[in-house]
From TrEMBL:
Gene3D superfamilies: Alpha-ketoglutarate-dependent dioxygenase AlkB-like (2.60.120.590). GO terms for molecular function: catalytic activity, acting on DNA; demethylase activity; dioxygenase activity; hydrolase activity; metal ion binding; oxidoreductase activity, acting on paired donors, with incorporation or reduction of molecular oxygen. The lineage of its organism: Bacteria, Pseudomonadati, Bacteroidota, Chitinophagia, Chitinophagales. Keywords: Dioxygenase, DNA damage, DNA repair, Iron, Magnesium, Metal-binding, Oxidoreductase. InterPro entries: AlkB-like, AlkB-like_sf, ALKBH3, Oxoglu/Fe-dep_dioxygenase_dom. Residues 101-199 form the Fe2OG dioxygenase domain. This is DNA-N1-methyladenine dioxygenase. It comes from Taibaiella chishuiensis. PANTHER family: ALPHA-KETOGLUTARATE-DEPENDENT DIOXYGENASE ALKB HOMOLOG 3.
Length: 199
């Protein structure tokens, strides 16, 4: 089979596999998807528990998935919304690229440079032993950071452009933390969709 997607090769030096696929969607398609997803998604501003305290997440979220695939993290349980036509199409693209199926998606809306996601691993048990995660980006370019859990000084940066897909697979979620930090640069909205497969 021919590979319809061109990627950077593995960007990690060891203990994982992260690949960047720029321009999977055209600038026009990306802008259309951004506007459509902003308008049509029932965004929620969730509170999470950090050290026993309720804090609002610095972003808006929505959880989609096959019926019955509820997802829990940081003390909240999300019931999935049913796939929309748009998300079902994007899921097909992500599946073709990853070479496997997905049954869930987390949508993140970063309203501006002050919205962010802290350092974490997507290593919940329900994601299975070696989670494969495809991350689609639309809207503003934001810097995505990776660092190894035993060598936290060396931080790798990937600028995630609109229309791109980032693929994380293999041992990545065991050994590497990732984050989308705040930035003082003026930023318009960015939407991120991470397709995942829950057991
Ligand atoms: O916004 C991003 O690119 C990262 C999102 C992420 O890490 C997640 O949803 O687990
Ligand atoms: Fe993540």
């Amino acid at each position: 089979m021919t590979n319809l997607f061109t990627d950077t090769g593995n960007l990690l030096p060891y203990d994982g596999d992260v690949r960047y696929f720029p321009a999977v969607f055209s600038p026009e398609a990306s802008e259309k998807l951004l506007q459509q997803l902003i308008a049509a998604t029932p965004w929620r501003h969730e509170a999470i528990r950090i050290f026993g305290r309720e804090v609002l997440q610095p972003r808006l979220t929505a959880w989609y998935g096959d019926a019955g695939k509820a997802y829990s993290y940081s003390g909240i349980t999300m019931q999935p919304l049913p796939w929309t036509d748009t998300l079902a199409e994007l899921k097909q693209k992500a599946e073709a690229l990853a070479g496997q199926g997905f049954n869930s998606a987390l949508l993140n809306l970063y309203r501006d440079g002050q919205d962010s996601m802290g350092w974490h691993r997507d290593n919940e048990p329900e994601l299975g032993p070696n989670p494969v995660i495809t991350s689609l980006s639309f809207g503003a370019v934001r810097s995505f950071k990776l660092k190894h859990h035993r060598d936290k000084k060396k931080v790798y940066t990937i600028d995630l452009e609109p229309g791109s897909i980032l693929l994380m697979q293999g041992l990545t979620q065991h050994h590497w933390l990732h984050a989308l930090p705040k930035t003082a640069l003026p930023k318009t909205a960015r939407i991120n969709i991470t397709f995942r497969s829950l057991l």
